[in-house]
Design goal:
single chain, 113 residues, alpha+beta, 3-stranded antiparallel β-sheet, 6 strands, 42% helix
Length: 113
């Protein structure tokens, strides 16, 4: 019985270690801006220009939203107007996970503290 408990604990530890070492952006690259996008392998200037033309809209619609700016800045380093009509505040993405095929644009955030 004791061996089963140890096996169970080792199984959970192995799963946690496996998930910890998975890439943040599988099949793509994490970039901070358009210049870094162009420097990433597999991305050209036209692709990056088209992607970064849409990032402001994606950032304003995704991620956590807060009722006040001070509530947002308690948790996130930089906050911008967010949501429909800019009536809320949301975290500004620090970087973007970009993939060409299938096309994926995911904001990546830095937490405060």
């Amino acid at each position: 019985m004791r061996n089963i408990a140890f096996l169970f604990i080792w199984g959970i530890a192995a799963f946690i270690a496996w998930s910890w070492f998975q890439p943040v952006c599988p099949g793509g690259a994490v970039v901070r801006d358009e210049a870094a996008c162009r420097a990433a392998p597999g991305f050209d200037a036209a692709f990056c220009r088209g992607i970064f033309a849409r990032t402001a809209k994606i950032a304003s619609e995704n991620g956590p939203a807060f009722a006040s700016q001070s509530e947002c800045t308690d948790r996130w380093p930089v906050c911008d107007p967010h949501g429909p009509g800019n009536m809320q505040w949301g975290a500004r993405p620090a970087a973007w996970c970009l993939a060409r095929s299938p096309e994926r644009i995911e904001p990546q955030y830095d937490r405060r503290g």
